[in-house]
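DeoR family transcriptional regulator
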Amino acid sequence: MLPLERQTRILELMDAHESLLTQEIAEKVGVSEATIRRDLQGLAERGLVSRTHGGAMRLERHIAREPAFATKSVRMPTEKMAIADYAASQVPDGATVIFDAGTTILEVARRLAGRPLTAITLDLPAAQALAVGETEVLLLGGRVRSNSFSITGPWTEEHLRNLRADLFLMGAHAVDERGVSNAVIEEAVVKRLAVEASHATMLLADHTKFGWRAMTQVCGLDRIGRIVSDRRTRRFEWLRDAGVTLNVV
């Protein structure tokens, strides 16, 4: 395979998987990791990929842009189901839980629906899913964002400043050594306040979210008690240094 053919194949793989490790690319293309590293360097110099820890992703994805809810809902379905199963198993009856917006959090909400919980929601679909049985649902007032259904704005922020919860189930667009970041400024502000309002924060994020950064910082890793992710997530050295508990499922 000629270098141009290899690099075209690499870009096709990244379009399908969003980000890949060098080893994974080498196995899929059928060449050595050293060859792939040279190809990735060439693609990076052309502005087509961004190098990450041990791999790469398409450059246009390096700075997070928020996809529509319908698009997000079909990404990484197996990983999201596994993450949601584990996260739901960690929530005790009687807890007061803040539910972030996002498709992975929605899957957790579906699993917890009907349980004896107080659910404070930042997301319309999560509120609908939870409002059955013994679950008490508090939907925070604010602006419903088109195409994502998250709730943001001054009303939401004011409510969060006056709330106290046992647990915040948080999603994110990106996680790196500086912490959790988000592509939408208004959502980042709401997430930050939810972290402050909660005794503990559990971050739910699949492997594509790690090793890069979005536009707006939410919080440092020191504010995250536990991260739940899928088996393709690398145990980055900066996660170990931060002392964050990482559960891969």
